[in-house]
Design goal:
By secondary structure, this protein is mostly helical. The protein has one domain. α1 packs across α6 and α4 packs antiparallel against α6. The longest helix has 32 residues. It starts with a helix and ends with a helix.
Length: 150
């Protein structure tokens, strides 16, 4: 479980860093805002990235979920949350990532996010990554719950 927790932590931290850069209005890994918005948001006719505060909010959520993976993997211990709270948070985070991953393959999502290159990246990278993160967090949560239940 340690290797899984560390792998998930690194992936989630990477996602957090990207969102932090966007919140700071640094258009990495491309050179302009319009291209980035069409690459990572994909909404119809999008020209601008979401507001900075939204990017920073996603950053904070990703950091929290990254920290949660370390808790669920037994790498760090907390005094601020009960085992039940950690389990519930893990299963909830897992559900969000799995649902996001599935959504990326559904027609309604394609209508909401028709811009290229987002559409292509969503099919081969964003949605599969979301599914893998969700499944990984589910595995950690299941193992954590079983261990705590004893």
């Amino acid at each position: 479980m340690t290797a899984l927790a560390i792998t998930l932590f690194i992936a989630l931290l990477g996602i957090a860093v990207a969102h932090a850069l966007w919140g700071l209005r640094i258009w990495w890994p491309v050179s302009d805002e319009r291209t980035l918005a069409r690459t990572v948001v994909g909404a119809a006719s999008i020209e601008r990235m979401p507001p900075a505060h939204q990017c920073i909010a996603v950053t904070l959520v990703m950091i929290a979920v990254a920290a949660l993976t370390l808790q669920l993997g037994g790498i760090s211990k907390t005094t601020w949350a009960t085992a039940t709270t950690l389990s519930i948070a893990g299963f909830a985070a897992s559900a969000v990532f799995v649902l996001r991953g599935i959504a990326g393959f559904l027609p309604f999502w394609a209508k909401l996010t028709p811009e290229q290159p987002f559409r292509r990246y969503d099919q081969w990278m964003y949605s599969p990554l979301s599914l893998m993160l969700g499944i990984g967090i589910f595995i950690l949560s299941q193992n954590f719950s079983a261990t705590v239940a004893g």
